[in-house]
Hints:
The chain has helices spanning 13-26, 38-50, 70-79, 97-105, 118-132, 145-154; strands at residues 5-9, 31-35, 58-62, 88-92, 110-113. It has 155 residues and is of the alpha/beta class.
Amino acid sequence: MRKYKILVADDDADDFEFINSILHEINPLTQTEHVLNGKELIDHLNEKLISQQPFPDLILLDINMPKVNGFQALKMIKSKKDTCSIPTLMYSTSACPVQMEQCYVLGANGFFTKSHCEKITREFAQEIFNCLEGHYGFHPVNFSFSLKAAIQKNN
């Protein structure tokens, strides 16, 4: 397995620790960075650009954050030529179809409804690595976990 850099923007420390532990469990070589809001995310990417450091392989972006929310941050990321190609997956406690649609309209590569179910989160994390390793590209169809979770919950 390759070493990947994943930047997680989430204001909830418990949610970050949960996804972080699962990412490292699947791929111990993973390097995660954590920012607490969209403003810190944009500042972090700008610092990387100025210092000519490599961007992360993937951004995992929470929607509901203070200062600059996930929608605003996504719009900024996807509007800049230097950052628009970074795969960006949105995640939220909400499974609102309107929010999902807005994420895709703004250029998100996927959407995941946060779950405290370890099995569902592990499947999501495994899909991240499958895409990063080139098994298939980042396409919204590959990240229909919110729908999958809803189907499993109802069965």
